[in-house]
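QA checklist item 7 of 12: single-chain prediction sanity check.
[x] sequence parsed
[x] length recorded as 352
[x] structure emitted
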Amino acid sequence: MEVSVSAGSNTTGALRHVLGHLLTPLLMCVGMGLAYLGAFHAPEPHDLRVDVVGSGPPAQILAQTLQDKGAGALDVRTVADRDTAVTALREQGSFGAYVPGEKPELLVASASSDTSAMAVEKLFTKVAAGQGAPLEVTDVAPAASGDPTGQGVFFLLVALSIGAYASVAVIGGAGAVLPMRIRVLLAAGMSLVVSLIGTLFAGPVFHLVDQGLGSVWALSWLYAAGILLVGVGLHTFLRRWTTLGVMVLFVMLNFTSSGGIYRPELQPGFFGALHSFWNGAGFVEGVRGHVYFDGHALGGHVLVLALWFLAGAALVVAAGITEARRGRAGGLGQGPHGEAEAEEEVEEAVAV
């Protein structure tokens, strides 16, 4: 009888333990659905900057007509000449420029965003058809031949992110018994390895970029190091919830606001706002600016990545101080949490 009662008690306790841990994948499911469907399910332009080339009344009337019909979808302006329009495209100040005439021409920069270029082309194809003329499309900043859709940089971001955030689970979980300084060294080493793998993918393996590979590696390292430091620092405070927390920061909110699939002009305002300071956007736009746009605005994107890196460094310092205080209060032990819980966290992260 005692054996039966004990077995039943153990089963109940184990079931309660499993059900508690199943809360994490359920929250991940809800979070991923809200993030990805919220960001990508119905892309619609808003304040999408396009130019009409010309300074006379016909150009102004066309621009005003498009602005009125757009009802907030477009931000239409006139520019004096074709060269000015090309400059705006190459500085990512606009996403299309229409040159009216007997042979109308549309200028786009697909390396900035292939989906935005497609949206603009669809719009002005209708405009040219209304004037009874076929539309000639000129791409003034095409993506590399190995990345015809211009979205390869986004998938590079995904590879770097998964490598970095999975490393956080291992270092924070299996390495929880190690001193913080050793965990930081492991994070530094993994950021180097992950960034080198990403650079091999971007260059020799898939030819996603055809120039500036050294700087792509530097951006990759800074991005991966920021994730690893933030994650290792957060682990002291979040413990078994670290996997969920890091996924929220560097998958759910990060991929959706990066601009790798749709730029913020085609997304709801929340994701557009994140695009201005989130680390994934800093990486994607930094690589684009460096490789395709002669380094335009690169400094601002590097600053975003550097601030995330510094935030991670600050978290690591705070975590080290917190662990030292816990050690003094509770004596020497297993580290931030028990070995069994650490192993469960690593297995959970790898499964995800």
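[x] summary fact logged: The longest strand covers residues 48-53.
[ ] second reviewer sign-off
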